[in-house]
């Protein structure tokens, strides 16, 4: 039985939280994600193995951090990775630093994942109080807010309420987005200066940098500050805090590995007990905490007159150790102002942040009376970022490239500033002519490099292959590729002149991966890598760069979504072959190369499918990489002859090797031999990891003897890992009353529980039989797993009907005895209260049923392994991690056509809620604590609601999909719609040879047209904004049937996200989610969603049931599991309800009759040449459905229209496009409330503005829609 769990409502500095498994799992998740994505250096294989072994690792770590054991805790030694700092190099006499004595290195620390996790647990315990002290970084940049927040760097993702922060510790995210907060920091001094001084020139902006910031923070002082802060926030907890920080002191006792100790002292002079490791994911947080007292003192000085000074500080902000001050002068600027200011700051640092020192070489003073303001680079960066974040057409992309080239020129100009001498007024000239961008060069150059690559690739996939010339709507690939080469060379040049620019070197090689460019880099590196002195800073610089390009070769360089994104003639295979030679040369040097360079060489060669014969004389850091290469060659890892590696490490390495190899048989062969040589208990313990990879499990089973194969398959079936074998796949047969294993039902192609009604009825029965302790005891207790459950159902069709009482059919859920082999994946976590365990168990079962997998934590779709050289992505998760971070949003449960609504997704989130997060409570009406009876009532109410919505005439469910408006404007009662009548593709382009329009030339032309139409839309909104003198918010944008290819959805996703509007578009024929060999025709809803956690994009597909003769001839299949009803929720008003159909489905009068009772607007997406018939249909439907009907057709035929049942004809036809071949965009408003409420001509509609009231027709007979006539 689980112990009484901790109360996680407020995680605080208490010893029990340091070893709490729920906290440690989340700490691992945050560390793992941050290291892989942001750290300068990462041991990828260590991260992979920890993801697979997480369950056992958490147990071990928890024990070592317990109250009784933490005093014996000894952190693993840190390994040093020496990275170059910014310095000038030259090539006049070989590649070398201009001033060798000034060459500096950054002491990056590689810490084990155990140490990263333990320190992240400390961060979680202290996050709320430290973040609250720093203030909300989202506050507007105003004088009124300037005392509330000054720190913008390395801020945690938190929710804010009444000035208090609540860190979101129950997910993998750690720090807020860099670009957003850095923009705030950069803009603040100028914004505050303008508000305070206006046109006055009696001011200065001072930029200050700290020297060796992380390296000089005394750890004991840091812990003292944190303990004092904790005591200030929580009264009478001093003893608890004392025990907590006493334990933390053991965790913070980091020491360099003996092999790195002397070099670390030489690089940074870092003594034991001093400094935060640069490489510890939590260091940014702790560094901010150390400066809290200093920040508070500077804020206290705002506006105060200083003793014997004619200046005062009026504003201050910082981004980690980069500080900006705004200073006011009472009189003329003193000649020694800079010296005075630096001396004062150093005194304050000595008092409030002991140990820290100013880096006086980086101090910059900009005086208001003789110095131009900063070059507003940050504003330009924001503008570019806004442009490239949305959809990119040819014109926008070309303009973005020009802006990025201009920003790079600003970076170059800073390095070539005039240095006047003998002019008679040298100082004034230097001040006036100086170019001081408000963003640091390295930051600007990285921004430009990454955005340029992104824009170039978006533009190239739209460019014509053979075109040599440019036009507004097109661009030639050859010209574009020439620009890419030029840009890549410029980035390469910047790296040569400053090797610390490794990130832009990586972009250069990724953008234009040719052997010539790589050869230049390798030749320069070889000149220093071959030096005899292993501590030579030039050699260390070259070795770090070599490790970076090898890491990039495995994870980044040349790996693109579309092959057309790579420049023509670059030869990625030749590039990788040359990089392989370099990697092999690194390994040939045995102990001459540092461990981290060898590590990356081994990773690259493994990804490049070139396993090496590795000797056992590898360093501990590289031993697992050697084992990985052995597995790729079919050899089981051994520590010595006849001494195999422990299975809890060897099996995870097998899984990594399987992924890297693309599923080669050598891995299955090695695994099969291990099974034959191991005890049954050992294999059984690890079987749950192997079955996660279906191909590996099946291949391994195939290599076993017939007897062993039968035995282990039966073990897997008994445990519930796989469905039954040796029998036919389960099928839903009406009238069949035989019991079937739930495992077999949900893993079949006919899985009936992928309909919400059926899933709810399964949940209801489980709550009825498993909700009370007495029921669980009667069933034998144990873990509730799908393998224990049998289902009897005589009519699956009626089970999916929410209005059927099921009184005339059999539906039984039978819970069997505890199986001899349990499935650990379904065990109730220790943090779950015993009284709530039934909720968690039922949630697990129903989630497994909905996603159709035996592992309820798995994503509904996993990418297949590809043979050949593929991008190394690592193992980001395993079942134990996913169990503590399930994505229970609607899109996390299944494909876009899955007949499951957000309501059920929210209910599953409530049942499977884990510590550190709070699931949404917007749709499901359940109290925080609820009983099994409350859950059953809730399900019953939901079934009644679904019964009221059910499309009886059409025989399918109508599921509501709530959407919260993403803007806070007051509702006008009108829905603003944009109708985009696209001209491509034409109906004639759909042929049997390529019905999905996948031919490359067609794809480029199609994508270009979609992007151009979005650009036309943006231009139209600009024109309307000009003559309406207001910025319009578009609610919904409509596209015709078959208008958008599935590969181009991301373009519309960016569009919807940037405009915060809904989109409905017809998708080109694409494979069915249930059968890739069948093509279907659907429409896609793209829906921006705003919640307390931020903004996200949701997507669902509306299926099509009725096929036209042309579609039948092309082999298109019918697929419409449900009809969606979009509930567009407005502030303080009832939702608007929208539904859509694809072309021919709209002619089904049964569907129109069903929807007329529920929807406020009916959308028809068409590619139809029979304009007359559809005109007549819309004219009839808008009255008989008594609502707006919107038809969007292809420009090839025209006829797009929007109509509503007004009395006057000129009002009835709101919009109509006449004529063929008219690509166009129309924007109009719909008064949806008018017809919902049945207002007559004498009753003013809501928000009536005093103008004449349009008359509407009387509702048709039999209309019974909610609210009509109220």
Automatic annotation (TrEMBL):
<keyword id="KW-0695">RNA-directed DNA polymerase</keyword>
<dbReference type="Pfam" id="PF00078">
    <property type="entry name" value="RVT_1"/>
</dbReference>
<feature type="region of interest" description="Disordered">
    <location>
        <begin position="1236"/>
        <end position="1270"/>
    </location>
</feature>
<feature type="domain" description="Reverse transcriptase">
    <location>
        <begin position="62"/>
        <end position="388"/>
    </location>
</feature>
<dbReference type="InterPro" id="IPR036526">
    <property type="entry name" value="C-N_Hydrolase_sf"/>
</dbReference>
<comment type="similarity">
    <text>Belongs to the bacterial reverse transcriptase family.</text>
</comment>
<keyword id="KW-0808">Transferase</keyword>
<keyword id="KW-0548">Nucleotidyltransferase</keyword>
<dbReference type="InterPro" id="IPR051083">
    <property type="entry name" value="GrpII_Intron_Splice-Mob/Def"/>
</dbReference>
<dbReference type="InterPro" id="IPR000477">
    <property type="entry name" value="RT_dom"/>
</dbReference>
<protein>
    <submittedName>
        <fullName>Reverse transcriptase (RNA-dependent DNA polymerase)</fullName>
    </submittedName>
</protein>
<dbReference type="InterPro" id="IPR043502">
    <property type="entry name" value="DNA/RNA_pol_sf"/>
</dbReference>
<dbReference type="GO" id="GO:0003964">
    <property type="term" value="F:RNA-directed DNA polymerase activity"/>
</dbReference>
């Amino acid at each position: 039985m689980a112990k009484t769990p901790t109360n996680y409502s407020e995680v605080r500095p208490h010893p029990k939280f340091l070893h709490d498994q729920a906290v440690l799992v989340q700490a691992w998740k945050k560390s793992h994600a941050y290291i892989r994505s942001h750290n300068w250096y990462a041991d990828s294989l260590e991260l992979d193995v920890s993801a697979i072994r997480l369950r056992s690792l958490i147990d071990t770590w928890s024990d070592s951090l317990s109250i009784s054991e933490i005093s014996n805790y000894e952190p693993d030694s840190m390994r040093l990775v020496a990275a170059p700092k910014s310095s000038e190099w030259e090539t006049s006499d070989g590649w070398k630093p201009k001033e060798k004595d000034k060459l500096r290195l950054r002491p990056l620390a590689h810490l084990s994942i155990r140490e990263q996790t333990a320190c992240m647990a400390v961060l979680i315990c202290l996050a709320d109080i430290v973040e609250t002290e720093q203030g909300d970084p989202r506050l507007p940049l105003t004088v009124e807010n300037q005392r509330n927040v000054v720190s913008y760097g390395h801020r945690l993702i938190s929710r804010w309420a009444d000035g208090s922060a609540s860190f979101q510790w129950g997910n993998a995210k750690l720090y807020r987005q860099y670009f957003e907060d850095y923009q705030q920091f950069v803009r603040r001094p100028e914004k505050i200066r303008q508000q305070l001084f206006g046109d006055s020139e009696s001011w200065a902006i001072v930029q200050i940098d700290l020297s060796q910031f992380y390296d000089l923070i005394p750890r004991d002082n840091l812990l003292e500050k944190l303990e004092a802060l904790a005591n200030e926030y929580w009264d009478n907890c001093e003893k608890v805090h004392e025990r907590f920080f006493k334990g933390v002191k053991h965790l913070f006792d980091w020491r360099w590995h003996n092999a790195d100790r002397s070099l670390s002292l030489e690089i940074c002079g870092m003594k034991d007990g001093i400094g935060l490791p640069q490489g510890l994911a939590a260091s940014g947080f702790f560094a901010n905490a150390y400066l809290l007292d200093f920040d508070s003192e500077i804020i206290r000085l705002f506006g105060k007159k200083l003793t014997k000074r004619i200046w005062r500080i009026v504003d201050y902000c910082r981004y980690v150790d980069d500080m900006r001050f705004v200073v006011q002068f009472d009189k003329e600027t003193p000649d020694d102002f800079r010296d005075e200011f630096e001396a004062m700051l150093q005194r304050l640092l000595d008092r409030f942040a002991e140990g820290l020192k100013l880096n006086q070489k980086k101090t910059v003073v900009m005086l208001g009376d003789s110095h131009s303001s900063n070059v507003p680079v940050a504003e330009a960066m924001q503008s570019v970022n806004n442009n490239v974040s949305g959809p990119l057409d040819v014109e926008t992309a070309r303009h973005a490239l020009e802006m990025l080239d201009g920003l790079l020129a600003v970076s170059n100009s800073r390095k070539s500033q005039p240095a006047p001498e003998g002019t008679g007024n040298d100082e004034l000239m230097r001040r006036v002519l100086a170019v001081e961008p408000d963003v640091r060069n390295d930051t600007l150059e990285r921004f430009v490099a990454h955005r340029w690559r992104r824009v170039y690739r978006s533009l190239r996939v739209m460019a014509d292959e053979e075109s040599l010339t440019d036009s507004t709507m097109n661009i030639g690939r050859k010209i574009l590729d020439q620009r890419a080469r030029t840009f890549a060379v410029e980035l390469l040049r910047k790296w040569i002149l400053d090797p610390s620019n490794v990130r832009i070197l990586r972009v250069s090689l990724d953008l234009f991966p040719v052997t010539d460019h790589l050869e230049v880099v390798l030749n320069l590196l070889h000149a220093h890598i071959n030096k005899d002195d292993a501590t030579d800073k030039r050699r260390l610089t070259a070795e770090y760069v070599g490790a970076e390009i090898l890491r990039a070769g495995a994870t980044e360089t040349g790996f693109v979504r579309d092959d057309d994104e790579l420049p023509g003639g670059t030869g990625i295979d030749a590039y990788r072959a040359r990089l392989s030679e370099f990697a092999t040369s690194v390994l040939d040097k045995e102990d001459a190369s540092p461990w981290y360079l060898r590590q990356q060489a081994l990773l690259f060669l493994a990804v490049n499918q070139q396993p090496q014969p590795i000797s056992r004389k590898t360093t501990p850091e590289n031993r697992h990489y050697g084992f990985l290469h052995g597995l790729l060659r079919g050899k089981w890892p051994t520590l010595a002859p006849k001494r195999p590696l422990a299975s809890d490490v060897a099996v995870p390495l097998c899984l990594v090797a399987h992924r890297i190899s693309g599923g080669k048989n050598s891995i299955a062969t090695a695994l099969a031999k291990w099974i034959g040589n191991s005890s049954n208990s050992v294999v059984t313990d690890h079987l749950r990891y192997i079955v996660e990879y279906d191909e590996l499990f099946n291949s391994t089973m195939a290599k076993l003897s017939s007897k062993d194969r039968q035995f282990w398959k039966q073990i897997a079936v008994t445990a519930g890992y796989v469905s039954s074998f040796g029998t036919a796949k389960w099928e839903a047969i009406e009238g069949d009353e035989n019991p079937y294993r739930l495992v077999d039902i949900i893993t079949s192609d006919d899985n009936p529980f992928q309909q919400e009604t059926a899933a709810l009825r399964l949940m209801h029965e489980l709550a009825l039989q498993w909700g009370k302790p007495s029921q669980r005891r009667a069933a034998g207790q144990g873990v509730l797993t799908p393998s224990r459950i049998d289902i009897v159902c005589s009519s699956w069709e009626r089970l999916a009907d929410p209005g059927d009482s099921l009184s005339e059919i059999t539906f039984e859920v039978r819970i069997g005895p505890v199986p001899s082999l349990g499935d650990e994946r379904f065990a109730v976590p220790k943090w779950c209260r015993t009284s709530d365990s039934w909720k968690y168990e039922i949630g697990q079962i129903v989630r497994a049923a909905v996603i159709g997998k035996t592992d309820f934590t798995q994503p509904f779709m996993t990418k297949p392994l590809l043979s050949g050289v593929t991008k190394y992505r690592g193992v980001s998760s395993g079942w134990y991690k996913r169990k503590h971070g399930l994505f229970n949003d609607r899109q996390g449960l299944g494909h876009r056509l899955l007949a499951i609504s957000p309501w059920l997704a929210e209910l599953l989130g409530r049942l499977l809620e884990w510590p550190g997060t709070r699931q949404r409570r917007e749709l499901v009406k359940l109290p925080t604590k609820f009983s099994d009876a409350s859950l059953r009532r809730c399900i019953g109410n939901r079934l009644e609601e679904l019964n009221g919505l059910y499309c009886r005439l059409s025989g399918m469910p109508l599921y509501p999909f709530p959407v919260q408006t993403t803007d806070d404007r007051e509702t006008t009662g009108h829905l603003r719609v944009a109708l985009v009548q696209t001209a491509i593709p034409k109906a004639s382009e759909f042929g049997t040879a390529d019905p999905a329009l996948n031919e490359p030339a067609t794809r480029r032309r199609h994508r270009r047209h979609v992007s151009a139409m979005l650009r036309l839309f943006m231009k139209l909104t600009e024109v309307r904004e000009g003559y309406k003198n207001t910025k319009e918010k578009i609610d919904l944008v409509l596209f015709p049937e078959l208008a958008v290819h599935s590969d181009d959805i991301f373009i519309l996703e960016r569009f919807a996200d940037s405009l915060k509007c809904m989109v409905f578009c017809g998708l080109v024929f694409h494979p069915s989610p249930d059968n890739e060999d069948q093509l279907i025709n659907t429409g896609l809803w793209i829906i921006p969603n705003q919640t307390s956690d931020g903004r996200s994009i949701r997507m669902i597909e509306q299926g099509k049931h009725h096929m036209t003769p042309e579609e039948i001839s092309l082999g298109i299949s019918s697929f419409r599991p449900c009809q969606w009803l979009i509930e567009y929720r407005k502030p303080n008003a009832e939702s608007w309800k929208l539904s859509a159909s694809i072309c021919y489905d709209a002619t089904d009068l049964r569907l129109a009759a069903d929807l007329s009772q529920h929807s406020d607007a009916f959308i028809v997406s068409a590619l139809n040449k029979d304009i007359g018939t559809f005109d007549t249909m819309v004219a009839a439907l808008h009255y008989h459905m008594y609502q707006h009907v919107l038809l969007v057709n292809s420009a090839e035929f025209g006829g797009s229209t929007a109509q509503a049942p007004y009395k006057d004809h000129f009002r009835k036809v709101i919009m109509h496009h006449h004529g063929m071949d008219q690509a166009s965009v129309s924007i109009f408003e719909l008064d949806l409330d008018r017809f919902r409420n049945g207002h007559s001509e004498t009753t003013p509609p809501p928000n009536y503005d005093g103008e004449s009231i349009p008359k509407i027709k009387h509702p048709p007979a039999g209309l019974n829609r909610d609210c009509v006539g109220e």
